[in-house]
Write a structure and sequence with these properties.
CATH class of the largest domain: Mainly Alpha
Largest sheet: none
Shape: flat
CATH architecture of the largest domain: Orthogonal Bundle
CATH superfamily of the largest domain: MetI-like
Radius of gyration: 27 Å
Number of strands: 0
Number of domains: 2
Order of helices and strands: HHHHHHHHHHHHHH
Helix content: over 70%
Strand content: under 5%
């Protein structure tokens, strides 16, 4: 084999290795983000939205540059590589969003806001948003955790005791289908303050699905597990804590996921009951003044918080139910 042939083979193998190392989704993501940055900065605005257009273009260009560097480094990481197509779509979406709002004005002000409108809210109103997030976290935490604790205890009792289920299950089936917000008139009469009423609404929305799914899980435990445990000398307390509850955990986590979503749906309504701060109050306040950019900014914050909590709940579930891998 001649030297020229060897050099050609080395060149082809090196080129193939380079193409293998390049993260193609990262290159396309960088292109879409650069396109969004160019549209944002170079095209004139038909509708003026604050003074954050240049800052938005800079952030988009920085994101595109980061994706490009990661793409040619060939080390995006599993999570980043998994969401590569999403990064491309996000860049294209930002470009279309910018064109249809600020650049062409097809989606009119004030009902629709361009990306720089939301960025302007985060830059100028971040302190109020943080206060509202803190108030919302306090209300949601008190309501959600109290609701799931009571719902879990009631669900275990319903699934274990036939006598308790005889009286309790019809009441739970009667309350369950009714939206939590429908109990607002009763809460005003029962609770001394609107804050306590709001906690009750969130607790009710999160506790009912946990109770129903927990009762279902305890009731579906294989009776052979109880027989084996009794043969080994287990008492009632052991059967409940060590047999029934662990076996029912998959159903419990389904109820927790449902309760998490329901609690956030009720949270906005609950914070409208005379609250002074909170994301629900922030949404209502800015809607009254047609500040829809602030409304969209708060909705994005709520969506990110809810998505983060769902992800955290998935992690907890995988840790606690790791022993069931290969079984379910």
């Amino acid at each position: 084999m001649s030297d020229a042939v060897r050099d050609e083979i080395r060149l082809e193998s090196g080129t193939a290795a380079l193409h293998t190392r390049i993260w193609k989704d990262g290159v396309f993501a960088a292109a879409s983000w650069f396109a969004a940055a160019g549209i944002t900065y170079l095209l004139p605005d038909t509708i003026v939205w604050g003074d954050k257009t240049a800052l938005l273009a800079l952030l988009l260009a920085a994101g595109g540059l980061a994706f490009l560097l990661i793409a040619f480094a060939g080390r995006p990481g599993k999570a980043l590589a998994h969401y590569g197509p999403w990064l491309i779509v996000i860049g294209l979406w930002l470009a279309v969003w910018e064109l249809t709002t600020a650049k062409f004005g097809w989606l009119p002000k004030p009902f629709f806001s361009p990306p720089q409108g939301l960025l302007h809210v985060y830059v100028t109103d971040w302190d109020r948003l943080l206060i509202c997030v803190a108030y919302t976290a306090r209300l949601w935490g008190l309501g959600f955790f109290s609701g799931i604790l009571v719902g879990f205890a009631v669900g275990v009792a319903l699934g274990w005791s036939k006598r308790f289920a005889y009286w309790g299950m019809p009441v739970l089936k009667l309350i369950g289908p009714v939206p939590a917000s429908a109990w607002i008139p009763c809460t005003f009469f029962i609770f001394p303050t609107t804050f306590h009423a709001s906690i009750f609404l969130v607790a009710l929305a999160s506790g009912v699905p946990v109770a129903i799914l927990t009762a279902s899980g305890v009731g579906q435990v294989n009776r052979a597990f109880y027989d084996v445990a009794r043969t080994l000398g287990a008492g009632t307390r052991y059967l409940v804590l060590k047999v029934a509850i662990p076996a029912a955990l998959p159903n419990v986590f389904v109820g927790l996921f449902m309760g998490l979503y329901y609690s956030f749906a009720v949270l906005v309504v609950a914070e409208m009951l005379g609250a002074k701060f909170g994301l629900g109050w922030y949404l209502q306040f800015n809607t009254a003044y047609s500040a829809y950019a602030n409304v969209y900014a708060a909705l994005i914050v709520m969506a990110l918080i809810c998505a983060g909590l769902v992800r955290l709940l998935f992690i907890v579930r995988d840790r606690l139910l790791g022993w069931q891998k290969g079984i379910l």
